[in-house]
Amino acid sequence: MTSADSKAQDRGFVDHISRREFWIVAGASLLCSITVTHSSVVALALGREHYSLEQIGILLSITAIPVLLATFLSGALTARFGARGAMQFAMVFAALGVGSLAITRDYFWAALVSRLIWGVGVGFFLPPTMVYVQSRLSQKHFVYLVSAFSATIPLGLAIAPVMGEFVLDHYGVAAMFLIGALPAVLGFLVTFALRPLEKPTGTRGFGIGSAAQGWHILPLCVLLVGGAHYGYAASYLAPALAEHGTALGFFFVPMTIATVSSRIGAMRFLAGFHPRNLAGGGLAVSGLALIVAAWEPTAALAVASGLLLGFGNSMIYPVVSAWMGRNAPAHRRSGVQAIAATAFYSGIYATPWPETYLVAAFGFSVTQMVLGLAGLVVALAIIGARTEG
Is residue 5 part of a domain? Predict the structure, then answer.
């Protein structure tokens, strides 16, 4: 063992090359996230193309189908092509899905196909990425490092809305989608600097059934509701803020600052708490954020809500993912991550469609109150439960 390996192991990595690969994957994830989180301005862009609210809701939610299917298949894809190959496959589809909307946006059914391709990229990306990252880590600082890595994913949400809104206002809808696809292309190229992982043995089918445990139920509920909070913010807070003349940056920039700072800074100290308390506490704060945003979203309230949602939501997916995956054997890890991602993605991508009807019937504020209260209920349930793991 070299001195560099020894230092890397003291910091929670398998060896010094794994430490470098950790940061390469983080950079690639940020680039892919910028492309994927252009969903936050899809409603604005399609509104300018004279789509109805119902059509926009369908196009926002239709990605749930390929996302969930791709997530279920991600274990098999990882077993066949390895974690690096599965990540690259996902990035190609994400770039194609976003970029093709520059051409298909004029036709509803063609745009729907683009969104389906987009969803395939999203669904295949996160499980093999988490498998790769977790394989680079030892048990030392495991939860903290997984959380720190996860900060790169929502970081895209601070960049994509601002970048997308600027390009949309100055260069139009087609340019917004074309430029939005470029980061995923760059991320794809970056991943060639990674060592391929040994393909897992013992994986059967989709790798999910053998990985499922009874105690996963409440953590998966936290992921589902937390994903719904994040999905609402990514899909509908832009038009909700625009309705009141509040710039998007007042919410999304503070949200991302809070997310990144809590995962990199606060989680260093919070990682000592039991994951059930971290996940439940995060979901409660996330729910409170949407309740705050239900009031007239002035700039000050938008900033406060963004900070709360960023801090609370930051503790949901990475904590539960690490909680479920840290003791899983290698041949089941892809299945565990597929389960976690399926629950989280269900919240993000399946809920905007029914939320459309809530928004149409009762408005943005009532919808946010419903989501916020649901978060508080589930948070109390998991904190009070004697969940295993």
Answer: no
Q: Is the pLDDT of residue 204 over 60?
A: no
Q: Where are the alpha helices (DSSP H) in 105-151?
A: 108-135, 142-150
Q: How is residue 244 annotated by DSSP?
A: T
Measuring CA to CA, which residue among 171, 186, 283, 285 is closest to residue 226?
Answer: 283
Neighbours of 103 (CB within 10 A): 14
Q: Which residues of 341-360 are buried (b: 16+ CB within 10 A; e: fewer)?
A: bbbbbbbbbbbbbebbebbe
Segment 24-40 mean pLDDT: 88
Q: What is the largest CA-CA distance in the chain?
A: 64
* Residues in contact with 159: Cβ distance below 8 Å, sequence separation at least 6, in sequence order: 34, 37
The enclosing domain of 146 has a CATH number of: 1.20.1250.20
Return the sign of the alpha-carbon dihedral for residues 248, 254, 257, 261.
Answer: negative
The model's pLDDT over 75-129, given as tens digits with 9 standing for 90+, comes to 778 878 888 999 999 999 999 999 999 999 888 999 999 999 999 998 899 888 9
Among 20-24, 144-148, 289-293, the minimum mean pLDDT is found in 144-148
pLDDT at 63: 81
Choice between 18 and 272, residue whose per-residue pLDDT is larger: 18
> Do residues 39 and 233 touch, judged by C-beta distance below 8 A?
no
Is residue 281 domain-resident?
Answer: yes
Number of domains within the chain: 1
The verdict on residue 3 lying in a domain is: no
> Is residue 4 assigned to a domain?
no
Nearest to 157 by CA among 233, 66, 57, 64: 233
Query: How far apart are alpha carbons 253 and 246 in whole angstroms?
Result: 13
> Residue 158 is part of which domain span?
10-384
